[in-house]
Amino acid sequence: MAKPEEEDTIDDKPMPLLEHLVELRKRLMWSLLSFVIAFAVCYYFSKQIYMFLAQPLADILQQKTGGERRMIFTALTEAFFTYLKVAMFGAAFISFPVAASQLWLFVAPGLYRSEKRALLPFLAATPVLFLLGASLAYYFIFPLAWRFFLSFEVPATAGNLPIQLEAKVSEYLGLVMKLIFAFGIAFEMPVALTLLAKVGIISAAALRRHRRYAYVGMFVIAAVLTPPDIISQLGLAIPLIGLYEISVLMAAWVQPKPVEE
Is residue 57 packed enough to be buried (19+ CB in 10 Å), middle (13-18) or exposed (0-12)? Predict the structure, then answer.
């Protein structure tokens, strides 16, 4: 029966530097091609994608006023560049699995079998966690935050001028993209911490020991990445604390065990 150490081999053959560069070029070309195709498709549907991103605001405005409300653009090219940004945003999201798989195909031949088995779950979890974070922002944070900001509107009354929101399309997109990326990237924390524990850089004991400082750091990160309202900040900080606790459990599970003498 073969020992595990003998089975843990690298499924690769020696290659000169030029062949590695050719292989890297091939992987980059496939990644770029997937992005270009996704960009073309997303630009064709850019108006529909933008309407999807604006739907939480539209729903709240409909509930609040029951009348016609609008979004505006104040520069001649603003709407065009906004749709370009929408297409790039959608293309990056759609083509990420292809780019990740191409990176894996380039790196995997140089890894041991045990390293491949260890990394594959993290590679699969990365887009799933990003999607969970983005979904939390879209379906939970957006309605609460937009309702909070719209509470500062002033209705028209006798002797008063009304104060109403007329959101710019580019500013709204910028805020939405910032929140989606902030929540999506923040939800990658378990992947990062578990990988660090896997290679022995950190330990579950260290994560537990520095828990109080980590909690403070979560609120600082939330304050930096989200708009200056308590709803968005708590909406990011509280899930981050939960993800940190999950990371502690995952780190204890995957960290190298002490060698028994």
Answer: buried
Instruction: Rank 46-50, 151-155, 165-169, 255-259 by mean pLDDT and report only the highest.
Output: 46-50
**pLDDT tens-digit profile of 63-105?**
877 667 788 888 899 999 999 999 999 998 888 888 888 887 7
Average pLDDT, the chain: 82
- The per-residue DSSP string of 21-49 comes to HHHHHHHHHHHHHHHHHHHHHHHHTHHHH
Q: DSSP for 93-142, please give it.
A: HHHHHHHHHHHHHHHGGGSBHHHHHHHHHHHHHHHHHHHHHHHHIIIIIH
Comparing 134 with 103, the larger pLDDT belongs to: 134
pTM: 0.78
Q: Is 212:227 a contact under the CB 8 Å cutoff?
A: no
Contacts 24+ apart (CB under 8 A), 93-100: 94/38, 94/41, 94/42, 95/31, 95/34, 95/35, 95/37, 95/38, 96/127, 97/127, 98/30, 98/31, 98/34, 99/31, 99/34, 99/35, 100/126, 100/127
**Environment class of residue 157 by beta-carbon count within 10 Å: exposed (0-12), middle (13-18) or buried (19+)?**
exposed
* Domain parsing of the chain, residue ranges: 18-154+164-187
What integer is the mean pLDDT of 54-69? 81
